[in-house]
Write a structure and sequence with these properties.
Structural class: mainly alpha
Number of domains: 1
Strand order of the largest sheet: 1-2-3
Largest sheet: 3 strands, antiparallel
Radius of gyration: 17 Å
Helix content: over 70%
Number of helices: 7
Distance between the termini: 52 Å
Strand content: under 5%
Order of helices and strands: HHHHHHHEEE
Number of strands: 3
Length: 177
């Protein structure tokens, strides 16, 4: 199996994991899961769904590289860029659509898939670069992203990106409007 084939499979694997990670907090509500998985239906909370799906899949992907002895470099840096850029790409595509059409399930899925496609293409190129030795910075970056997720889950700003229209609230069941 080649790196390119693995990255193509990764797009679909991450996409499928998003369906699972969407519900994990509802199934197992606890403080740890509230940091990694969506606690409500706000736009922001869905960034955790996508990010955690990328993180989980990337761990599986690492073992696939080892099993098939696929040459790659900069794995942790690639993971950090996938996580960070997925949020940025998704929001850049999704927010204008959301303002014109509102939340339409099929458009949400298409936007998610496109975001995962682009971050996997970028990841493919990062994995093919010479070793950049940025593992520590990338690990710190991923940890900081989840710290931000945790903070914003429990202390969301009053902004439409953080508002759950389904339950008419912000954050994790702390306060309602």
């Amino acid at each position: 199996m080649t790196l390119k084939k693995i990255k193509m499979v990764s797009i679909f694997g991450m996409f499928a994991l998003c369906f699972l990670t969407h519900f994990l907090y509802n199934w197992f509500p606890n403080s740890l899961f509230s940091i990694f998985f969506p606690v409500n239906e706000s736009i922001w909370e869905h960034m955790k769904m996508m990010t955690s799906s990328i993180l989980i899949w990337s761990i599986l992907e690492y073992f696939i590289y080892k099993k098939y002895r696929v040459n790659h470099n900069n794995f942790v840096l690639s993971l950090f860029l996938e996580v960070t850029l997925s949020i940025i790409i998704f929001l850049i595509i999704y927010l204008p659509i959301y303002h014109f059409t509102g939340s339409i399930f099929i458009l949400n899925l298409i936007t998610l898939f496109i975001s995962l496609y682009f971050v996997n293409v970028i990841s493919y190129y990062i994995l093919n670069l010479r070793p950049l030795h940025k593992e520590i910075l990338a690990i710190i970056g991923v940890i900081l992203i989840y710290i931000i997720f945790g903070i914003l889950t429990y202390n969301p700003p009053y902004n439409y990106i953080f508002f759950d229209k389904v339950e008419n609230k912000y954050g994790i069941n702390i306060y309602e409007l």
